Amino acid sequence: MKILKYIFLLLLLSLISFSVFIATQKGNFSIEKSKIIHSSKSNVFNYVNDAENWQDFMNHISEETNLKGKFNKNTIGKGAKFSWEGSEAAGTIQTFSVKNNDSIHQKMDWDDSKFKITWIFKDTLGGTKVTLKSEGEMSFSYKIYTALHGGAKKIIGSLFEKSLVNLDHSLVYEINTYKIKVNGLVKKLGTPYLYQSFTSKISKVVKNSRIVFPKIIAFCEQNNIERTGKPFIIYHTYDATNDLAKISLCIPIKEAIITSEGSDILADELISFTAIKTSLYGDYSHTKEALKKSKSYINQKVITPDSPFSHLEVFTISKTEIKNPSKWKTELYFPIKPKKTTPIIIPETKKNSDSETETNPTEI
Q1: Backbone phi and psi for residue 234, each to the nearest 5 degrees, phi listed first
Q2: Among 57, 263, 311, 354, which is least packed, fewest CB within 10 Å?
Q3: pLDDT-derived band of residue 334, with 50, 70 and 90 as boundaries?
Q4: Alpha carbon 226 to its chain's center
């Protein structure tokens, strides 16, 4: 019995000593890591500035199993916020300040530890130098964890290094892996749709679509309106010089309806039209190149544009279905007046899943 008592006292003294040791350790820390990301500064900044990408490269989130996450309504820029719960820990991260193409400032609460995080972006040879700085205060439990695993600088520094490696991979492979194919002449079938129209900066169309599309989808669900097909954008005007476009963000529906007077969601019907179709396989940021190749094809073929609108884009495969940008697909349709010598367009068949038929597809 005496031996057991001595062992118990020894363990108790060890526990007290360890607790005193942990309590006297500094809870504050300051860490800085840098890496050259092999992509342009604007690409890197825009990617980090979008909360929907954080799960893909922030290591303390991406390594969580059974992750349950929730975004703020705003996912880009100041106010963007992501909250999560996982098997290892829970936390929130929020952007509170942004300097365009220069820096992003965030606050993070992770397992009761509080961090301030700063991202700094600098042009450099071969890409963008990204510096990730953090300072904060660890909870008592996290002080124990870091003390047992080599200290805060080692643990948090390793997380930051892995996050920067993940960021480089996401941008170099996922963002830069893409293909553009000009399919050629097609018949784009019509459909009833619900929409919201406004003028937007072209650079903010994606941000606006992430706000408006869910709103229209919720409207459909609330009113038992059956949706058919993928969301699409009608570009009524497209002014690349001034970065402005008049757009309609649209959700196709099964039957034509009339929305109530005063509703900010309206209804219309897209009439079938002849178009030049281009498919973009990869991140949406390459649409400018897809537009350029499409217009070059139209000019080379001396095709006359028909201009009820500039063009239409369909999000065939998007982030809502697959998070890997390299696997996304966007279809672009440019309304045209086919020449009299144009081959007869074959009517749609059941086998055609893209809602149009193609004639003499050409890849460039």
Answers
A1: -100, 120
A2: 263
A3: very high
A4: 26
- Decide if pLDDT at 353 tops 50: no
Q: Mind listing the pLDDT tens digit for each residue in 88-99? A: 667 889 999 999
CATH class of 179-359: alpha beta
pLDDT digits (tens, 9 = 90+) for 167-203: 998 888 888 899 999 999 999 999 999 999 999 999 8
Range name among 4-8, 152-156, 304-308, 351-355 with the lowest pLDDT average: 351-355
* Amino acid (1-letter code) at residue 16: I
Mean pLDDT computed over every residue of the chain: 82
Q: Distance (Å, rounded) from C-alpha 160 to C-alpha 98?
A: 20
Pick the closest to residue 82 from 44, 53, 42, 46 (CA basis): 53
Predicted confidence band at 330 (pLDDT cuts at 50, 70, 90)?
A: very high
Looking at the chain, the domain(s) classified CATH 3.20.80.10 span 179-359
Q: Which CATH number fits domain 22-175: 3.30.230.10, 3.10.620.30, 3.30.530.20, 3.40.50.12280?
A: 3.30.530.20
Q: Say what the pLDDT of residue 15 is.
A: 47
SS (H, E, C) the chain: CHHHHHHHHHHHHHHHHHHHHHHHCCCEEEEEEEEEECCCHHHHHHHHCEHHHHHHHCHHHHCCCCCEEEECCCCECCCCEEEEECCCCEEEEEEEEEECCCEEEEEEEECCEEEEEEEEEEEECCEEEEEEEEEEECCHHHHHHHHHCCCHHHHHHHHHHHHHHHHHHHHHHHHCCCEEEEEEEEEECCEEEEEEEEEEEHHHHHHHHHHHHHHHHHHHHHCCCCECCCCEEEEEEEECCCCEEEEEEEEEECCCCCCCCCCCCEEEEECCEEEEEEEEECCHHHHHHHHHHHHHHHHHCCCEECCCCCEEEEEEECCCCCCCHHHCEEEEEEEEECCCCCCCCCCCCCCCCCCEEEECCCCC
Token digits for 87? 């098997």
Q: How many CB atoms lie within 10 A of CB 21?
A: 12
